[in-house]
Amino acid sequence: AASVAISLNSASAQAIWTAGHGDLGIGYDAGELDPHVHIHTGATVDTVVLGADEEYAPGDALPQIAFAESLSRPAGAQWDFFGVSSGQPVWIFPAAEDPSLPFIGLGAEELEPDDWSTPFTITLTGLAGSGATAGGKFSVYQTDGFGTPTVSIQTTNGISGADAVTLAAGGHAHYNFAFTQPGIYEATFHITGTHAVDGAKSADATYKFEVVPEPASLALLALGGGAIFLRRWRKSKIV
Fold first, then answer.
1. Which one of 114, 115, 174, 228 has the fewest CB atoms closer than 10 angstroms to its CB?
2. What's the CA gap between 211 and 195, in Å, rounded?
């Protein structure tokens, strides 16, 4: 049976995304890149199942995973990128769809491939928020058919130009988004691509993610005057 979780520090203006498919999207408008969040019909936002697609500015949609969804970091050096020891908790928005969790993709389907002469490069340039301040690490990776990870972004060894993914115009991809502490994460990305006519284009966007802290911790914080939001705890698995 589902249990109740409490979310603190989620800005009331944000759309709280708790289940279903959505993309960190790239558009192009008036000669400029247009990063956004595109959440699809059937996803759950603010406890309501969407009857139509909706788009939000980066940071205005907050994908959320509950404290109870923690997984144990597997043994093996290939998992060191998580930044925690074997057996320690990690929280993952999975690359394989779980209908009870946000299914986060990268999407540039609205762009015509012939209009772009290079793929987009999406590079992590900063990580802030309460989760990061508490020492939480952020990583983005995929796994092959044997479960072996290929890591694109990790903050365990700092942030550099190597922390990047690529996406073709017209393309769509899914990655695992992993976190190692409860709290809010504000991940800033620099997005670049070359338009066939307009030339090099770039934009910066900060997307937010939340690992909902455990209720006992939130109850203590709430006594200090914090706002309380009720959310649902759900289950996931490492992929």
1. 114
2. 36
